[in-house]
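subagent[fold] <- orchestrator: predict structure for attached chain, return tokens only, no commentary.
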Amino acid sequence: MKNILIISYFFPPCNLTASQRVLGWANYLSNFGYYPTIVSRNWDIPINSPEDVLKSTGREVVHQKNDQYEVYYLPYVASIRDQIFSKNKDKKIFQKISKILTFKDQILENYFNRSIPFSNLYDFSLDLIQKEDKYKCLIVSGNPFVQFKFGFLLNKKTGIRWIADYRDDWNTSELISRGNGLKKIISSLQSKSERKWVKSSECIISVSPKYTSKIASFVNKNGEVILNGFDGLNENDIIETDKRYFTITYNGSLYPTQPIEIVINAIKKIILNKDVTLKIQLNFPGLGFDKTQKNRVEKAIKGIESNVLITDRILKEDVVKIQKGSDLLLMVSHLNIKGIPSSKMYEYIGLKKQILFYPNDHDIVEQTLKSTGLGVICNNEKEVYLNLLNLILLKQNENSVFNLSKIDQIEFYSRKNQTAILAQLIDRIIEI
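subagent[fold] -> orchestrator:
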């Protein structure tokens, strides 16, 4: 078994989606001859609000080991900025102070490790590499993208070959406004740092062909696509849907660029349709975590509040149970932006449920849903309404046109199969 090192700020028991990508690799890399050591920060408190991520956690290094992988959880001491913000987030004066400190940190972290509150991930990893001399390769998973500085420094000091893993893109992101003034200066500085740090890597990996191509071109490195993937569904744990309801579930974060209002408006029309006798239930598990988006949805559902469930962050197993009991899973893409396959798409695929997708991205999401046979793809508001109505009436009349004829294609997207692709990449790197 060959040893590799993975630096990832997010890792379970952190209950954020960002922790699942590296966990998938950790669970399956041993099947392909690799034993990973993960270095992460301590996550000994549940994350029920964005402020929880900012809190100090742990007082000593915690080491856990099993047959598939081992992980070191390091103490995390919140920065002064985070301490101020988490305690005074509703006070405008402290919001301004926090913003000033954010700009300071974003500048200084390019030059000084001590400006990074989790720089102990670097120090600990350097100590591991120098003491044990057994690691064949390093993977650094961003974000936070400043972790790529750790890969750069570790390569410089020890010569270890490393891979830069982008769960999202950084300075090439179309979802972030670069702004003017100080924001523009910081963006320029971070762009230079990204190119400098990632230049020392063997290659970059990311979650879609478009992301990978865009980032690889920006940093002038080769890129490989490693999809997020899903963990298999236990066929003995299937939940029958309630015959009295047609249940639609949207899981995950929601962004301003996603036109959820179009789907909600279509559901409102269907509820008023006299031909529909089933009760329509729309679920947003965990959306309450983001107060801004929760308020946005609550505004859109005026008049059908009794048909909608919005929860705060809940246990993953409870979210999965809600999805299993749904007739339809909902995906809403970003307007005029391609190449963003959210992690929930793969979770949806693993549940082998039909997926309503709007608006069509004409890119990786459309391609994936077509290849699996799970997608109901809509190009405009009228198609959303008609497809929804058709699916509801099919259930109401106890008919179905849904089948799993493309099961082999579905399995391609499993975390195990995607980890196999990663293992092949590591094979090539360590043989150079």
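orchestrator: received. Logging for downstream: The mean pLDDT is 88. The CA atoms of residues 170 and 176 lie 9 Å apart.
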